[in-house]
Amino acid sequence: MNTLTEQEALSRLAFYCSTAEHCRSEINDKLHKWGIESDAIERILNRLETEKYIDDERYCRSFVNDKFHFAKWGKMKISQALYQKKIPSTMISEYLCNIDEEQYLITLRHLLNTKSKNIRAKNSYDLKAKLIRFGISRGFEMKDIRRCIDLSDMQEWE
Fold first, then answer.
1. One-letter-per-residue 3-state SS of the chain
2. What is the pLDDT of residue 151?
3. How many CB atoms lie within 10 A of CB 23?
4. Residues 135, 74: contact at Cβ < 8 Å?
5. Rounded CA gap, 128 and 145, in Å?
6. Of 39, 40, 50, 42, which Cα lies nearest the Cα of 17?
7. Is residue 85 pLDDT above 70, yes or no?
């Protein structure tokens, strides 16, 4: 296998990072897979950060925005995904707090309402249980799911 030089790796990654947002840990993993030496990895990562090709804060902000608005993920799922990418928890919390609470609940309510139309349930209890499992699988917190599934909503969905 052909091993890349430090300059070749830097050039490839600069192009890679210019096409989409990536975080430091993703780039670090890619460099390790390419077999680049540890000291060279650190130099490449520092250069990419200095030249603003990678910025974990910018990555976190866009990740939270995209996963909430487009993928309709809840805060728990977004938080877990960012944690796995080694984004600092203080940064994660900061950007999750920027999600508008009213919009968050509207999104959850819409997801639950849409899902309820496709669920076969024996009774309202069964429907509620299935909707709760669905909401949790999408990364929403139990307190928010319960807020959206109250008795008046359940009567609407039956």
1. CCCCCHHHHHHHHHHHHHHCCCCHHHHHHHHHHCCCCHHHHHHHHHHHHHCCCCCHHHHHHHHHHHHHHCCCCCHHHHHHHHHHCCCCHHHHHHHHHCCCHHHHHHHHHHHHHHHHCCCCCCCHHHHHHHHHHHHHHCCCCHHHHHHHCCHHHHHHHC
2. 43
3. 21
4. yes
5. 10
6. 50
7. yes
In the block, tokens 């650190």 appear at 42
How is residue 111 written in tokens?
Answer: 């997801």
Q: How far apart are CA 50 and CA 38, in angstroms?
A: 18
* Cβ atoms of 92 and 114 closer than 8 Å: no
Is this model's pTM higher than 0.70 or not?
Answer: yes
CB within 8 Å of 117: residues ≥ 6 apart: 157
Map tokens 């840990």 to a residue: 25
The two three-digit tokens of residue 107, written as one number: 């999104």
Residue 10 Cα distances to 14, 21, 41, 50, 134, angstroms: 6, 16, 9, 13, 42
Alpha-carbon gap, residue 94 to 156, rounded angstroms: 36
